[in-house]
């Protein structure tokens, strides 16, 4: 895995730890920048060219309505119930199967992955 990830502070610590055990380069907002605004998180992901994983729907608005510069990949996890390690397992599956594409907003509900290209000016 060569992708560099930025996990929003709403991803569980157990998932962060598991991904790091796999050798992933994961920066955790909860550990490095707790309380950072969504704008700041998006800017950091963009500047550092990290793939962003989050449970926060506001990132879609930042990209599609406000046209804030997007990270290479954004994965919005939309699940109501899960175990703390599940987000890591879902991301591993999506990444290893080649389902995540640069320049796209991905929404995953545990079964279905939806993909939408970022606007040309984002």
Q: What is this entry, summarized?
A:
With 122 residues, this protein is an alpha/beta fold. It has 5 helices and 6 strands, in the order E-H-E-H-H-E-H-E-H-E-E.
Structural write-up:
The chain has 122 residues and is an alpha/beta fold. It has one domain: Rossmann fold (3-Layer(aba) Sandwich). The chain contains 5 helices and 6 strands. The chain has helices at 13-21, 29-32, 38-47, 58-64, 86-96, and strands at residues 4-7, 25-28, 51-54, 73-77, 104-108, 113-117. The chain has a 6-stranded mixed β-sheet, sandwiched between helices. Helix 1 (13-21) crosses helix 5 (86-96). The longest helix has 11 residues, at 86-96. The protein is globular and about 35 Å long. The two termini are 25 Å apart. The mean pLDDT is 94.
């Amino acid at each position: 895995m060569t992708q560099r990830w930025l996990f929003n502070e709403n991803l569980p610590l157990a998932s962060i730890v598991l991904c790091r055990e796999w050798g992933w380069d994961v920066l955790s907002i909860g550990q490095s920048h707790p309380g950072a605004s969504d704008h700041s998180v998006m800017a950091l992901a963009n500047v550092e060219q990290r793939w962003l994983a989050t449970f926060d729907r506001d990132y879609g608005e930042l990209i599609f309505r406000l046209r804030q510069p997007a990270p290479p990949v954004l994965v919005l996890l939309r699940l109501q119930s899960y175990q703390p390690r599940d987000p890591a397992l879902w991301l591993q599956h999506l990444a290893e199967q080649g389902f995540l594409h640069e320049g796209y907003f991905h929404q995953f509900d545990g079964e279905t992955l939806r993909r939408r290209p970022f606007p040309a000016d984002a």
